[in-house]
Design a protein that fits this description.
seven-stranded mixed sheet, 16% strand, binds S-adenosylmethionine
Protein backbone atom coordinates (compact mmCIF):
# COMPACT_ATOMS: atom_id res chain seq x y z
CA UNK A 1 0.00 0.00 0.00
CA UNK A 2 1.22 3.56 -0.80
CA UNK A 3 2.60 5.52 2.15
CA UNK A 4 0.03 8.24 2.95
CA UNK A 5 2.20 9.99 5.57
CA UNK A 6 4.07 11.85 2.78
CA UNK A 7 0.76 13.36 1.54
CA UNK A 8 -1.18 16.36 2.74
CA UNK A 9 -3.82 15.37 5.35
CA UNK A 10 -6.64 15.54 2.79
CA UNK A 11 -8.86 13.21 4.79
CA UNK A 12 -8.80 15.38 7.89
CA UNK A 13 -9.84 18.40 5.81
CA UNK A 14 -12.67 16.39 4.17
CA UNK A 15 -13.87 15.12 7.53
CA UNK A 16 -14.11 18.71 8.85
CA UNK A 17 -15.73 19.93 5.64
CA UNK A 18 -18.30 17.11 5.71
CA UNK A 19 -20.02 18.71 8.71
CA UNK A 20 -21.15 21.50 6.33
CA UNK A 21 -22.78 19.15 3.78
CA UNK A 22 -26.47 19.99 3.43
CA UNK A 23 -29.08 19.64 0.69
CA UNK A 24 -27.91 22.87 -0.96
CA UNK A 25 -24.35 21.54 -1.32
CA UNK A 26 -25.62 18.15 -2.47
CA UNK A 27 -27.84 19.89 -5.06
CA UNK A 28 -24.85 21.87 -6.39
CA UNK A 29 -22.74 18.71 -6.59
CA UNK A 30 -25.52 16.93 -8.50
CA UNK A 31 -25.92 19.84 -10.95
CA UNK A 32 -22.19 20.07 -11.44
CA UNK A 33 -21.72 16.37 -12.08
CA UNK A 34 -24.54 16.46 -14.65
CA UNK A 35 -22.83 19.43 -16.35
CA UNK A 36 -19.46 17.68 -16.59
CA UNK A 37 -20.91 14.36 -17.76
CA UNK A 38 -23.36 16.08 -20.12
CA UNK A 39 -26.36 14.12 -18.83
CA UNK A 40 -28.99 14.36 -16.08
CA UNK A 41 -29.35 10.61 -15.67
CA UNK A 42 -26.85 7.93 -14.76
CA UNK A 43 -29.60 5.33 -14.55
CA UNK A 44 -28.22 1.82 -14.75
CA UNK A 45 -24.59 2.97 -14.97
CA UNK A 46 -21.58 1.98 -12.87
CA UNK A 47 -19.45 4.79 -11.42
CA UNK A 48 -15.87 4.60 -10.15
CA UNK A 49 -14.88 7.60 -8.01
CA UNK A 50 -11.08 7.70 -7.69
CA UNK A 51 -9.95 9.95 -4.81
CA UNK A 52 -13.48 10.33 -3.44
CA UNK A 53 -12.55 12.78 -0.64
CA UNK A 54 -15.73 13.57 1.31
CA UNK A 55 -17.84 11.27 -0.90
CA UNK A 56 -20.11 14.14 -1.97
CA UNK A 57 -19.68 13.37 -5.67
CA UNK A 58 -20.27 9.66 -5.19
CA UNK A 59 -23.47 10.71 -3.47
CA UNK A 60 -24.28 12.99 -6.42
CA UNK A 61 -23.79 10.03 -8.79
CA UNK A 62 -26.24 7.94 -6.74
CA UNK A 63 -28.73 10.84 -6.72
CA UNK A 64 -28.45 10.94 -10.53
CA UNK A 65 -29.43 7.28 -10.58
CA UNK A 66 -26.08 5.46 -10.84
CA UNK A 67 -26.70 1.77 -10.32
CA UNK A 68 -23.45 1.06 -8.54
CA UNK A 69 -20.76 3.32 -7.08
CA UNK A 70 -17.27 2.22 -6.13
CA UNK A 71 -15.41 5.01 -4.27
CA UNK A 72 -11.73 4.74 -3.43
CA UNK A 73 -9.23 7.00 -1.72
CA UNK A 74 -5.73 6.53 -0.40
CA UNK A 75 -6.56 8.35 2.85
CA UNK A 76 -8.44 6.24 5.45
CA UNK A 77 -10.11 9.38 6.90
CA UNK A 78 -11.49 10.30 3.46
CA UNK A 79 -12.91 6.79 3.15
CA UNK A 80 -14.41 6.90 6.65
CA UNK A 81 -15.97 10.29 5.78
CA UNK A 82 -17.29 8.97 2.46
CA UNK A 83 -18.83 5.99 4.28
CA UNK A 84 -20.56 8.35 6.75
CA UNK A 85 -21.79 10.76 4.06
CA UNK A 86 -23.23 7.97 1.92
CA UNK A 87 -24.78 6.11 4.87
CA UNK A 88 -26.52 9.31 5.99
CA UNK A 89 -27.70 10.70 2.66
CA UNK A 90 -28.72 7.86 0.38
CA UNK A 91 -31.06 4.91 0.69
CA UNK A 92 -29.15 3.07 -2.02
CA UNK A 93 -27.07 0.12 -0.84
CA UNK A 94 -25.29 -0.17 -4.14
CA UNK A 95 -22.08 1.49 -3.10
CA UNK A 96 -18.75 0.64 -1.56
CA UNK A 97 -15.93 2.84 -0.24
CA UNK A 98 -12.45 1.41 -0.01
CA UNK A 99 -9.03 2.56 1.17
CA UNK A 100 -7.22 1.98 -2.11
CA UNK A 101 -4.67 4.00 -4.04
CA UNK A 102 -5.27 4.45 -7.75
CA UNK A 103 -2.02 2.54 -8.27
CA UNK A 104 -3.38 -0.46 -6.34
CA UNK A 105 -6.72 -0.55 -8.20
CA UNK A 106 -5.61 -3.16 -10.74
CA UNK A 107 -4.97 -5.59 -7.85
CA UNK A 108 -8.34 -4.71 -6.30
CA UNK A 109 -10.74 -5.16 -9.22
CA UNK A 110 -10.83 -6.20 -12.85
CA UNK A 111 -14.23 -4.58 -13.35
CA UNK A 112 -14.60 -1.87 -16.01
CA UNK A 113 -16.95 1.08 -15.38
CA UNK A 114 -19.36 3.13 -17.47
CA UNK A 115 -18.03 6.26 -15.78
CA UNK A 116 -14.59 6.76 -14.26
CA UNK A 117 -14.53 10.03 -12.31
CA UNK A 118 -11.47 11.55 -10.71
CA UNK A 119 -11.80 15.21 -9.83
CA UNK A 120 -8.73 17.03 -8.54
CA UNK A 121 -6.91 13.83 -7.55
CA UNK A 122 -4.43 12.43 -10.04
CA UNK A 123 -2.11 15.49 -9.81
CA UNK A 124 -1.78 14.70 -6.07
CA UNK A 125 -0.47 11.16 -6.50
CA UNK A 126 3.22 11.94 -7.04
CA UNK A 127 3.15 10.28 -10.49
CA UNK A 128 0.38 12.01 -12.41
CA UNK A 129 0.78 10.51 -15.89
CA UNK A 130 1.01 6.95 -14.55
CA UNK A 131 -2.04 7.68 -12.37
CA UNK A 132 -4.01 8.96 -15.39
CA UNK A 133 -3.09 5.87 -17.41
CA UNK A 134 -3.98 3.52 -14.56
CA UNK A 135 -7.33 5.27 -13.96
CA UNK A 136 -8.20 5.43 -17.67
CA UNK A 137 -7.84 1.65 -18.00
CA UNK A 138 -10.94 1.19 -15.78
CA UNK A 139 -13.17 2.83 -18.41
CA UNK A 140 -15.38 0.42 -20.39
CA UNK A 141 -14.23 0.15 -23.99
CA UNK A 142 -16.43 1.76 -26.68
CA UNK A 143 -19.16 3.03 -24.33
CA UNK A 144 -17.38 4.29 -21.19
CA UNK A 145 -16.37 7.84 -20.27
CA UNK A 146 -13.48 9.15 -18.20
CA UNK A 147 -14.13 12.48 -16.42
CA UNK A 148 -11.16 14.10 -14.76
CA UNK A 149 -10.03 17.45 -13.45
CA UNK A 150 -6.36 18.43 -13.28
CA UNK A 151 -4.61 21.60 -12.17
CA UNK A 152 -3.82 23.75 -15.17
CA UNK A 153 -0.12 24.54 -15.59
CA UNK A 154 0.94 28.16 -14.94
CA UNK A 155 4.37 29.87 -14.72
CA UNK A 156 4.11 29.84 -10.89
CA UNK A 157 3.34 26.12 -10.51
CA UNK A 158 6.89 25.19 -9.49
CA UNK A 159 6.82 27.72 -6.69
CA UNK A 160 3.45 26.43 -5.50
CA UNK A 161 4.78 22.86 -5.46
CA UNK A 162 7.50 23.98 -3.00
CA UNK A 163 5.00 25.96 -0.90
CA UNK A 164 2.73 22.91 -0.64
CA UNK A 165 5.55 20.60 0.38
CA UNK A 166 6.43 22.98 3.22
CA UNK A 167 2.87 23.83 4.31
CA UNK A 168 1.69 20.20 4.33
CA UNK A 169 4.47 19.27 6.78
CA UNK A 170 3.90 22.17 9.18
CA UNK A 171 2.04 21.63 12.47
CA UNK A 172 -1.52 23.02 12.40
CA UNK A 173 -0.55 25.79 14.82
CA UNK A 174 1.65 27.23 12.04
CA UNK A 175 -0.69 26.34 9.18
CA UNK A 176 -3.55 28.36 10.69
CA UNK A 177 -1.96 31.85 10.53
CA UNK A 178 -0.67 31.17 7.01
CA UNK A 179 -4.14 30.04 5.97
CA UNK A 180 -5.65 33.20 7.48
CA UNK A 181 -3.18 35.49 5.66
CA UNK A 182 -3.62 33.69 2.33
CA UNK A 183 -7.43 33.66 2.60
CA UNK A 184 -7.49 37.38 3.45
CA UNK A 185 -5.21 38.15 0.50
CA UNK A 186 -7.50 36.11 -1.74
CA UNK A 187 -10.60 37.93 -0.51
CA UNK A 188 -8.86 41.32 -0.94
CA UNK A 189 -7.98 40.38 -4.51
CA UNK A 190 -11.64 39.55 -5.12
CA UNK A 191 -12.64 42.89 -3.60
CA UNK A 192 -10.13 44.79 -5.73
CA UNK A 193 -11.70 43.26 -8.82
CA UNK A 194 -14.98 44.92 -7.83
CA UNK A 195 -16.68 41.80 -6.42
CA UNK A 196 -18.11 41.51 -2.93
CA UNK A 197 -15.88 39.09 -0.95
CA UNK A 198 -18.72 38.23 1.47
CA UNK A 199 -21.03 37.22 -1.39
CA UNK A 200 -18.17 35.28 -2.95
CA UNK A 201 -17.78 33.16 0.20
CA UNK A 202 -21.56 32.83 0.65
CA UNK A 203 -22.09 31.70 -2.95
CA UNK A 204 -19.04 29.43 -2.99
CA UNK A 205 -21.12 26.23 -2.43
CA UNK A 206 -22.40 26.73 -6.00
CA UNK A 207 -18.96 25.47 -7.02
CA UNK A 208 -19.57 21.72 -6.77
CA UNK A 209 -20.91 22.11 -3.22
CA UNK A 210 -17.50 23.16 -1.95
CA UNK A 211 -16.53 25.57 0.86
CA UNK A 212 -14.17 28.53 0.43
CA UNK A 213 -12.31 27.97 3.73
CA UNK A 214 -11.71 24.23 3.29
CA UNK A 215 -10.73 24.76 -0.35
CA UNK A 216 -8.12 27.33 0.67
CA UNK A 217 -6.55 24.86 3.12
CA UNK A 218 -6.67 22.14 0.45
CA UNK A 219 -4.98 24.47 -2.05
CA UNK A 220 -2.18 25.52 0.31
CA UNK A 221 -1.50 21.97 1.46
CA UNK A 222 -2.22 19.80 -1.57
CA UNK A 223 1.10 17.93 -1.73
CA UNK A 224 2.25 16.08 -3.85
CA UNK A 225 1.44 18.57 -6.61
CA UNK A 226 1.74 18.48 -10.40
CA UNK A 227 -0.02 20.38 -13.16
CA UNK A 228 -0.60 19.98 -16.88
CA UNK A 229 -1.63 21.92 -19.96
CA UNK A 230 -4.80 20.95 -21.86
CA UNK A 231 -2.64 20.17 -24.92
CA UNK A 232 -0.52 17.68 -22.92
CA UNK A 233 -3.63 16.00 -21.50
CA UNK A 234 -5.38 15.75 -24.87
CA UNK A 235 -2.37 14.29 -26.65
CA UNK A 236 -1.67 11.79 -23.81
CA UNK A 237 -5.30 10.62 -23.80
CA UNK A 238 -5.48 10.38 -27.61
CA UNK A 239 -2.51 7.99 -27.50
CA UNK A 240 -4.37 5.88 -24.94
CA UNK A 241 -7.34 5.56 -27.33
CA UNK A 242 -9.64 8.26 -25.93
CA UNK A 243 -11.49 11.14 -27.67
CA UNK A 244 -12.21 14.45 -26.00
CA UNK A 245 -15.98 14.96 -25.68
CA UNK A 246 -15.83 18.26 -23.83
CA UNK A 247 -13.45 20.38 -21.73
CA UNK A 248 -13.87 23.28 -19.34
CA UNK A 249 -10.57 25.14 -19.20
CA UNK A 250 -9.90 28.13 -16.92
CA UNK A 251 -8.62 31.22 -18.68
CA UNK A 252 -4.88 31.83 -18.93
CA UNK A 253 -3.23 33.29 -15.84
CA UNK A 254 0.23 33.70 -14.31
CA UNK A 255 -0.82 31.58 -11.35
CA UNK A 256 0.50 34.03 -8.80
CA UNK A 257 -2.44 33.40 -6.48
CA UNK A 258 -2.80 29.75 -7.50
CA UNK A 259 -4.39 27.90 -10.38
CA UNK A 260 -7.70 26.19 -11.10
CA UNK A 261 -8.57 22.78 -12.41
CA UNK A 262 -9.28 22.16 -16.08
CA UNK A 263 -12.05 19.58 -16.48
CA UNK A 264 -12.12 16.99 -19.24
CA UNK A 265 -14.60 14.41 -20.43
CA UNK A 266 -13.13 11.67 -22.63
CA UNK A 267 -14.84 8.77 -24.36
CA UNK A 268 -12.97 5.52 -24.80
CA UNK A 269 -12.60 4.30 -28.36
CA UNK A 270 -11.18 0.87 -27.74
CA UNK A 271 -9.49 -1.28 -25.15
CA UNK A 272 -6.43 -1.77 -27.29
CA UNK A 273 -4.10 1.06 -26.33
CA UNK A 274 -3.78 0.63 -22.55
C1 LIG B 1 -8.40 17.48 -3.64
S1 LIG B 1 -9.08 16.01 -3.04
C2 LIG B 1 -10.44 15.76 -4.17
C3 LIG B 1 -11.58 14.99 -3.56
C4 LIG B 1 -12.81 14.77 -4.44
N1 LIG B 1 -12.51 14.09 -5.66
C5 LIG B 1 -13.50 16.07 -4.72
O1 LIG B 1 -13.57 16.49 -5.88
O2 LIG B 1 -14.03 16.68 -3.77
C6 LIG B 1 -7.91 14.78 -3.52
C7 LIG B 1 -8.20 13.40 -2.93
O3 LIG B 1 -7.36 12.46 -3.61
C8 LIG B 1 -6.90 11.52 -2.67
N2 LIG B 1 -5.69 10.86 -3.21
C9 LIG B 1 -4.42 11.33 -3.24
N3 LIG B 1 -3.60 10.41 -3.77
C10 LIG B 1 -4.37 9.34 -4.09
C11 LIG B 1 -4.09 8.07 -4.67
N4 LIG B 1 -2.85 7.69 -5.02
N5 LIG B 1 -5.11 7.20 -4.85
C12 LIG B 1 -6.38 7.55 -4.50
N6 LIG B 1 -6.70 8.74 -3.93
C13 LIG B 1 -5.71 9.62 -3.74
C14 LIG B 1 -6.66 12.34 -1.42
O4 LIG B 1 -6.58 11.54 -0.26
C15 LIG B 1 -7.87 13.28 -1.46
O5 LIG B 1 -8.97 12.77 -0.74
Amino acid sequence: MTDVSTHFAFGENWRNYSATIDEQRIGSAVEDLARLLGTNSLKGLSFLDIGCGSGLHSLAALRLGAQKVFAVDIDPISVETCNNVLSQSTTSREWECSVTSVFDLPAKTDQRFDIVYSWGVLHHTGDMWRAIKTAAAFTKANTGVFALALYKKTPFCRLWAIEKRIYSHLPSVLQRPLLAVFSLAELSRIGLRGNNPMSYVKNYPRKRGMSFWYDEHDWLGGHPYESSSPEEVKSFMTELGFDLAQAFVPKASLGLSGTSCAEYLFTRRSAAAI
